[in-house]
User: Fold this.
Amino acid sequence: MMEFFIDPNRCIGCQSCVQACSECDTHKGHSMIHLEYVDRATSVQTAPVVCMHCDQPTCAEVCPADAIKRTADGVVQTARKPRCIACSNCVLACPFGVPEVKVELKMMMKCDMCYDRTSVGKKPMCATVCPSQALFFGTREQLEQLRPRSTPVNQFQFGAQTITTKVNMLVPKTGKAEYIYVTAALNETTIGKEITLNILQEAYD
Amino acid sequence: MNLPIESIKAACWGTLVTIALAILIVFGSRNLAHFDAALVAYTFATLFAVFGITYRYAMWLQRPPTAMYFKRGWQVFMRPQHILRNVGVWFARVTQDFAFNTFIFKRGKTRWGAHWLIMWGCLIAIAITFPLVFGWVHFETLPGDMNWYRAYVFGFPIFSFPIHSLFGFMVFHGLVWAAILVIAGVMIAMRRRMRDHGAAAVQQFGEDILPLVLLFAISVTGLMLTASYTWMKGYAFDFLAILHALTVIFTLLWLPFGKFFHIFQRPAQLGVAFYQDVGEREAQAHCRRCNEPYASQMHVNDLIEVERQLGFRYELQNEAEHYQRICPRCRRSLLAIAQGRLWHG
Assistant:
């Protein structure tokens, strides 16, 4: 079975995914992937953020118009156009910060894992073009072969809330982490920042 | 059997509104004096639809996020210092969003064309058929002049017009014009659904195709009735009348369950717009991580309450207090930082 695996650590910020995303037929012309500069002032680190397709999607639960639906195969679809009232509840509630509201269209849009492609066994546009394979779409066997040091997790901790997702994120096999504790990083800085500061510190010393 | 309290409340509302409509039918048709018995099946299908729509609407309003927006929407709209301005803005928004569908135009011109034609075709048809079916509107010839008709609304004479006039022709063929609009709209919508790869990937027969098929069936069978009595001396009229009735009744019965329910949900966008107006004017929430404003304080507080009601536990044991107080941009960064930390120890 083909699955989506993300390793933000491998992202080189080339923007290929951003361009490719807008070619997807289900949201053509609109790029739905976020390529985030994690802390632009002090680090070159970038991270691609796609919809993680939660088992219990907060965005859908807080939608007053009941406009966000999850397919039988676990893909959380973008808002249904006749229903969405552009209230932004989903934008503010998504723990991963994924949905966007297009104010002029009175509509929320989000990554739907290129449903026109993945529902017929093709890769999503972003994973097709990602040169560093930070965005990888394939089987677990392929992943094991390509990334023997990585293991996928699909549980994320936000305060007391655990969110399980269809999309996996890669963590080191040696660490034996069963989940990613996102809110524990609230006061953490990027790795790049740490290195920069160390260099500066050494220079001062 | 223990029914949830939400279902009982919704069923009560459904029953109440259905009874209210039944009473209005009796009074409006002057104790059924102007009620056309041949249309009784339409009446009962409508009463069922009204029950179903009210039931679903009441259930929908009881969902925590909908209930919150419904309450807040009315609160901000009715604020005494803004009520006059709000009424003016309400009319402007209804014209812009509902009469002209400007937001759909921005989504796509063919999508807009299809929706606008179907919407106005249906509105004209509804405005003509429901009052006629309920006996609220009827026509009589003027005493002593068989060439003039007088229109009665709720049994009161409203206006008269010559039968053989352009006005008479337009009025008596109102459903024909409505059918032409609907068929044109359905054609455009169907073409898009057959050719657009994106639409093809996510559309479902019951949700997206069936409504178009039903609207097309109603319109075509309706036009066939006109063709039968105008040019074919009433050929197969009885059969066509039953066929047309079946298509209409099926649509009425299906109204509460499918895509057409968005007609009743959509006005919520007006309440949301007033909520956002107030949100922009009042205090903004600043992200507890980057300190940038990202939403209205009212919205963030309301959402925290909604999430609590839904059973989410995004509370934090630090100065941020709740994950909702972190802006979406910081959330995206945090995910990368948390994952990166696992790799770099």
